[in-house]
Amino acid sequence: MPDYSVSQPLSTFYGTHLSPVVATYERMCDRVAMALGYPMINLEVHRNQIYEFITMSVEYFTKFAGYDEEFLVFDTNLYEDGKGIRLDKLFSITPELADSYAGVDLTINQSSYGATNTTVAANVSSVIFSTTIVAENSATPTEYAIKMVDADTKATRVSKLLVTTTVTSGSGTETSTEYGNIFTGSSDILSVTTGTSGASARTFTIIGTPTSTGTVTVIPNDYLVSSSGVSANQNAFAAYDVLVDNYRKVVNVNGFEQGSTTGVNTLFTIEQTLAQQTYFSYSMGNYGFDLISWYTVKEFLDTRAKLLSQKISFKFNPRTQYLQLLPQPTFDVNGNNTSRYYGVVTCYLEKPVIDTLKEQWVYQYALALTKIAIGRVRGKYTGTSLMGGGTLNTDVLSEGLQEKSALEEQLLTGTPGQGDADPPMFFVG
Predict the structure, then answer these.
(1) Which of 167, 183, 185, 316 could form a disulfide with 253 if both were Cys (CB 3.0 to 4.6 A apart)?
(2) Beta-carbon neighbour count of residue 265 at 10 Å?
């Protein structure tokens, strides 16, 4: 447990619902321990036990809540025959809809394509990445993913760096902005600066100054541009969860719409014909189709599409992350998609763990599990007299069990208070 024998500054405890002070496992562990009387009394529980209880709370919470609604556009050329579309990876390569993702590893690690790995020492400035600027007058922005892992504590730090470099008449300049900084320890462990060096300042460098010894991984460009086109070999930061060291998962799909050429703005369609009839009916003497007739015809067309299996249905497997379309796109003998179209999927995407830690339910459930663990340890010594005539209080066990049951009922029945997530429910496609 942390040493709170010395009073902490008030700024340590300032927080609101939308700006909570709990953003790490360490801080959540401290809150649970202090709610049980620490440091004024010793607790019969190990810090790793509390970490495990926090993880159990997060896993349980994210099964029924803790998700965001997202909208995703996809190209059926990404459809794998007999399997479907991998939505978790598709979230990371959405800007390049025509690309393939089947063999792409989107995690930030030392084996990522194009990664540079540098061992750094505490409080020593080191060049962790360098590359030669090729083009003159090139001001195209380049993005880098930067990750550091502390060698001792394994605390992780991740950020994105947006850089613009130019070389004009043998003189190089650069501008950079670091954003999306996330760290799992109690404080940041790396500061990053950029610059140019070498002949005519044509070498761009990223310099890192860590507060501890560890390994820094730098991955240039989310999307690698080559002569063969754009290839999604890099990590997309928005879909990456630094705490689980993996990309975020889709909980379920609750909507799918196929793109088409129908509509009132497209000639030679039923919609456009009905729109013309409706317009002329009100502008030239109330004859022809009115809005009620238009609505009735549209309902008929939708019903016909369903009965004749013209409307595409879908099913989603959250374990494999594959979205299957029924009927699936058609492929020729060479595996080429012969019925290409675009579609829109409405998905529920898991929040990053760092956001889930901020939910009050997660804290309360971890607290209840900790009470149960302490109560079971104390129950082993029931009847034992303490020095001075005191006895062990095991009421904390029944208290924790009651709180655990109430919190589970709250989560399963959709009681308000689950953050900004929708009430828990079954999704029916």
Answers:
(1) 316
(2) 9
For 167-219, write each residue's pLDDT tens digit: 776 677 788 899 878 888 878 999 999 988 776 777 888 999 999 999 999 88
Q: Which residues contact 5 (CB under 8 A, 6 or more apart)?
A: 39
pLDDT tens digits along 335-349: 777 777 888 888 888
Confidence of residue 362 (pLDDT cuts 50, 70, 90): very high
Pair of tokens at residue 91: 């979230």
Q: Which residues of 361-390 are buried (b: 16+ CB within 10 A; e: fewer)?
A: bbbbbbbbbbbbbbbebbeeeeeeeeeeee
DSSP string, 378-416: HHTTTTPBPTTS-B---HHHHHHHHHHHHHHHHHHHT-S
DSSP one-letter string for 277-308: HHHHHHHTTS-S--HHHHHHHHHHHHHHHHHT
DSSP H or E stretch at residue 16: none
Domains of the chain: 10-65+353-413 (no CATH), 70-91+250-350 (no CATH), 116-247 (2.60.40.1680)
Q: Retrieve residue 99's tokens.
A: 């690309």
